[in-house]
Amino acid sequence: MFIKSLHLKNWLSHEDTAIALEALTIFRGENGSGKSSVEQALQMLFTARSESTADNGNGSRDLIRRGEDKASITAEILERDDAVHPIKMRCSITEKSGRAVQIKKESDPAWTGTDYLAYLALNRDVLDCLINGRRFIGLKDDAQKSLLAAVILPTRVVFDDWVEKAVNDCGLVLDWSKKAFDLIEEGYKNAYSERTAINRLIKEWREPDPVPVQEQDAQAIRARLADRQAVRTALAVERQKQIDASQQKGRQRADLGEKVSALEVKLAKEQSRRAEVAHGLLSKAKLKDAQDALKCADTAKSLDADLQRIAGELSAVERTYAAFDKLGDAGACPTCTQPITEAGFAAIVGPVIAQRDALLVEQRKTLEARKILGDYEGSNKTLSAHHAAEKGVKLVDLHIAEVEKEIDECKKELDASIEDPATEPDTQEFDVKIAELDTRIETGNQALTAAVTAEANRQHYQAAMEGKKKLDAKQALLEKLVEYFGPKGIQAKLLDEHFGGFEGRMNKVLEVWGFQAHLQFEPYSFGISFAGKSEIFSLKTISASQRWRFAVAFQVSLAKVTGINFLVVDAADILLDAHRSKLYGALMEAKLDQAIVLQSDIRTAIPNAKGCAFFMLTLDDSGEVPTTRVNRL
Ligand SMILES: Nc1ncnc2c1ncn2[C@@H]1O[C@H](COP(=O)(O)OP(=O)(O)O)[C@@H](O)[C@H]1O
Ligand SMILES: [Mg+2]
Question: In this prediction, what percent of the chain has a pLDDT beyond 70?
Fold first, then answer.
């Protein structure tokens, strides 16, 4: 960091100080001329607080020049990564709202400077120390230690090759993105607590009973059992087949028997039906009569017609006779009224009577002839019934024949099956073999259970022993990690390495005065020894000028190690001239970007040195408010 220019407006005794600075800028002046005000201005600009304000900047309004209501500190800053385009920082302090920092780059209007402000904020404590070296010495050991660890330790450490694997193997979870110092601390904490847990597990661990080696292994037993089971299944299947075949025959025979019985019942029914139907058949004699009667049917029909005619003629004759009879009773002719004689009467009636007698004879003869011919219509009906019965009988006979045939066939089949009876299957041989196999399978199963249990026990035993081995290995690994992350491990190594460098840098500055710094981290101590003497003095007990030089040497180391490469040294007048010129030499040697030295000194003569600027500050007391006047020498 290089401050190219500085402008203090109404800042303490500085009414309007605008100066350009060099790599080594030295402010001279009397006591109270406004030198420390420059230091305070820089502190306010970079850390937003100063020696005389609270940590949060409260009280900054007291730093406004008396009689004014606002002040400002403006600086153009060049950073190493851009040594061409200055950053413009301006801190405004007002009565009302306190202090506020603005930041911009004229070369890049889009630049917001948030990164730069964050960088300054992150390095606030470091900047404090770089602007005022006494500040570090005033810190407590713990605060010194953590400030040093934060800046001196590398942010990234390459751990030993085995470490990451060991951390993973032990199941520790570390945030590898953390800063080295935090990471080591986390590693130590995690490894330590895990080791405690493992130690407890090991303490509680008990060896299980060892398991003797089994003669037969489960795999072989299983294979043998499977073979036996297969044989047994085949036997059982064959046995069942035989039983089934025998049962089938028996069932068939029973079915046939049942069928025959059913058919016989059917036959009986048919037969009784036949008897019923046969009832309608005529006897031979009756059949002949009926057939004969039917043969004379025409004759009988003509005789019946004759009988009818005769009956008609007879009734006509009867009527005639009756009329004549009436006439005979009257005794006279109704027409001629002549009396009718007996002979006359006999002569009239005689033919009628003869006709009637003849008709009666004919009727008798015809009736006799007809009687012989019988009832042909009845015979016709009787014959029809007979024929119907005959048909029925024939049909029933057909059925009967069918049923009889079926019965016959069934009986034949039945006889055949009786002749070839279902032999009771001989399963005994199978039963014996199966029983034997069952026994062997049972034995095999017992052996298998034993073998499986033994194997499980053996596995459990092996797992337990392996678990123990793993525990032991993990314990050993954790032991290693605890040591590695512990105070005497990588941390001590790193601190030694890096502190060594830090200390070396300090000593380069201190050696010009014959001093030596001694920095140690565990346990923490930071002291100084003097030319040729081994005794190390605490910083509290040495002289103010010795402490002052220690502080400057510390600032140089801090400026280098943080890469800020900038420092402010106040009260350099504490040194005698000779010592002071050694200081300048050491500062030049350190190749910082910039060093600003303030010293009470009123000499106006300056050495002819390149890159140096000397300013003389004087306090003008003539006005109401004292004003610092600044002249470049
Ligand atoms: N608010 C202020 N307004 C103006 N001058 C002030 C104010 N506060 C202090 N001063 C003056 O500023 C000067 C302090 O200067 P300082 O930087 O400490 O001097 P030195 O050169 O000794 O380091 C004193 O002369 C003091 O009177
Ligand atoms: Mg001073």
Answer: 100
Dig out the tokens for 215 from the structure: 């003669």
Residue nearest to atom 5 of ligand 1 (CA): 13
- For residue 286, the number of C-alpha atoms closer than 13 Å in the C-beta half-sphere is 12
Q: Given this model, what pLDDT does residue 74 score?
A: 97
The number of helix segments (H) and strand segments (E) in the chain equals 16, 13
> Domain of 586?
1-123+565-633
- Spatial CA neighbour of 586 closest among 549, 631, 548: 549
End-to-end CA distance of the chain: 24
pLDDT of residue 78: 96
632 lines ligand 1 (CB under 6 A): no
In a domain, 370, yes or no: no
Determine which helix (DSSP H) or strand (DSSP E) holds 318, and give its type and residue range.
helix 297-330
pLDDT at residue 365, as a whole number? 93
Mean pLDDT of all residues in 398-407: 94
Mean pLDDT (whole number) for 49-76: 92
Q: Whose CA is nearest to atom 9 of ligand 1?
A: 12
Q: For ligand 1, is residue 66 a contact (CB within 6 Å)?
A: yes
Residue 401 contacts by C-beta under 8 Å, 6 or more apart in sequence? none
CA distance 481 to 500: 25
CA–CA gap between residue 36 and residue 193 (Å, rounded): 52
Cα 413 off chain centre by: 72
pLDDT at 35: 96
Nearest CA, atom 7, ligand 1: 12
Query: What order do you get walking across the sheet with 537-538 strand by strand?
Result: 515-520, 525-530, 537-538
Q: Please name which of 22, 9, 193, 14 lies closest in space to residue 566, comparing C-alpha atoms.
A: 22
Query: What pLDDT is recorded for position 426?
Result: 80
Helix (H, G, I), strand (E, B) or coil at 194: helix
605 is a domain residue: yes
State how many domains the chain has.
1
The span from the CA of 44 to the CA of 51, in Å, is: 9
The pLDDT tens digits of the residues spanning 334-383 come to 778 788 888 888 888 888 899 999 999 999 999 998 888 777 788 888 88
Peptide bond into 523 cis (omega under 30): yes
SS3 content of the chain, % helix, strand, coil (to 5): 60, 15, 25
What is the rounded distance in angstroms from the CA atom of residue 600 to the CA atom of residue 617? 10
Domain presence at residue 413: no
**CA 236 to ligand 2 center in whole angstroms:** 116
Residue 496, pLDDT > 80, answer no
Is any atom of ligand 1 closer than 6 Å to the C-beta of 17? no
What per-residue confidence (pLDDT) applies to 55?
87
Is the pLDDT assigned to residue 156 strictly greater than 80? Answer: no
Distance from C-alpha of 215 to C-alpha of 169, rounded to nearest angstrom? 38
Least confident interval from 282-296, 387-401, 609-623: 282-296
Question: Is 223 part of a structural domain of the chain?
Answer: no
Nearest-CA neighbor of 128 among 546, 570, 465, 536? 570
CATH of the domain at 73: 3.40.50.300
292 — pLDDT class (breaks 50, 70, 90) = confident
